[in-house]
Amino acid sequence: MDIVARKNEENLKITRELELRENSEDTNDRSVIQKFYHGKNLFITGATGFMGKILIDKLLRACTGIENIYILVRPKKGKDIHTRIEEIFDDPVFNKLRDEVPKFRHKIVAIPGDCAIAGLGLKLTDRQTLISNVNIVFHAAATVRFDEKLKLAVGINVHGTRDMLNLCQHMKQLKVR
Questions:
Q1: For residue 56, how many other CB atoms are within 10 A of its CB?
Q2: Pairwise CA distance, residues 23 & 30, whole Å
Q3: Who contacts 128 (Cβ-Cβ below 8 Å, separation ≥6)?
Q4: Cβ of 64: how many Cβ atoms within 10 Å?
Q5: Predicted local distance difference test score (pLDDT) of residue 143
Q6: Radius of gyration of the chain from Cα atoms?
Q7: Which of 56, 62, 131, 139 is deepest in the core (most CB within 10 A)?
Q8: What pTM was computed for the model?
Q9: Which of 74, 47, 45 is nearest to 58 (CA)?
Q10: Do the beta carbons of residue 84 and residue 77 sit within 8 Å?
């Protein structure tokens, strides 16, 4: 029995050493950026626009260790946020991502809201989720139409940014905004 116990103990030590080596090799193979984003939760506004789509694609292909990406989505043209999300990720921009990281969608969390509405149009529960979990914020929402009504343009581009900064001040885990 004593020999069997020692052999099991030796095997356990060897297994632990191998696991440590594998984990350190995985860590050493990652870039500084990949290490930074590993295990982080992001919040992105403007994710349904061109720049937002490119950002999501690049982040999820390059930094597979990202925990979740919360994206602010508003209903538009009679479509609810879930329909819009389905259409967004059917975009050819995400073809390479679908091939390289087929299960990327489970990392995307749609949050209903609108930068033109006070407080980003967030429900209290969604606001609390963001405050508790988000580490990194990309505020890319804006209206770039030159013929936009001034009241709407100021609401989105100015007040939306102010509301985002106010939300960030409450985020407990925030590393970058």
A1: 26
A2: 11
A3: none
A4: 16
A5: 82
A6: 21
A7: 56
A8: 0.80
A9: 47
A10: no
Task: Tell me how far apart the alpha carbons of residues 135 and 108 are, in angstroms, rounded to a whole number.
Answer: 15
Closest C-alpha to 72, from 53, 44, 52:
44
- Would you give the distance in Å from CA 165 to the centre of its chain? 17
Token pair of 143, please? 């209206």
* Amino acid 1: pLDDT: 52
Query: Are the beta carbons of 39 and 65 closer than 8 angstroms?
Result: yes
Distance between CA 44 and CA 70 in Å, rounded?
6
CB of 162 closer than 8 Å to CB of 30: no
Strand extents, DSSP E, 36-160: 41-45, 68-73, 108-112, 136-139
Splitting the chain (177 residues) into consecutive groups of 10 residues, what average pLDDT does each group show?
A: 59 55 59 95 95 96 96 90 90 94 94 94 97 96 83 82 95 85
3 state SS of 41:
strand
